[in-house]
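User: Hey, quick favor. My workstation is busy. Could you predict this chain's structure for me?
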Amino acid sequence: MSDRLANIVTTGIAATALALTLGALSPTGAQAQLLAMATEQNGATGAAAVPQQNASDDAKAAADLPDRLRRQVVDYATAQEPGTVIVDTPNTHLYFVLGGGKAIRYGIGVGRDGFTWSGTKAIDRKSEWPDWFPPADMLQRQPYLPRFMAGGPGNPLGARAMYLGGTIYRIHGTNNPSSIGTHVSSGCIRMLNADVIDLYERTRIGTKVVVLPMNNWRVAQAAPTGTARAPKHARIFDESMR
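Assistant: No problem, here it is.
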């Protein structure tokens, strides 16, 4: 047998063994992690980089959400420039300002009691399928957490992360889609993976992010209502955001 033929046979045996091993594993375990690692190594980007099983779970979660938490274009009067991200903490909404009185509204999960914050920041880093390094203060509160978790479907940062400069906070995906619409995090803003991928593609390094405090409230009307406009108090509210 030639060396070339021997290499082909050896490679085929190894591939068969790997396939048998993966077939015996849980589809939400090693296979998902391996697929996530492969897509990252191959430089895959965008929605195609989401493992199919994760995308399916995300779609089901989105279908289960109430209408107010589903991604949609709404009427949104604001003094902020198009391209600005506004986090409406009390209403668990995130807006991407389109201009012309319109914005894309997403449902989000926000900080639990005692962990909310507000201010104006900018995105200073972006990452696809990010690794997770729990910050020191989180480890003090929850010492059982891992010190490191590689990016992938099981990672709590989900499919994308946008890091907010000067803070430990991020806008990121989630491996727990049922938490959207709740006050549950340690200060980060979490989104469905499909939604965070959509927002990730619309933002850039330097994008302005306005995080509103818990003591503010506003309502936006879905754009298909035609002549519907944001209520008058929303315009007054935006004066504090300039």
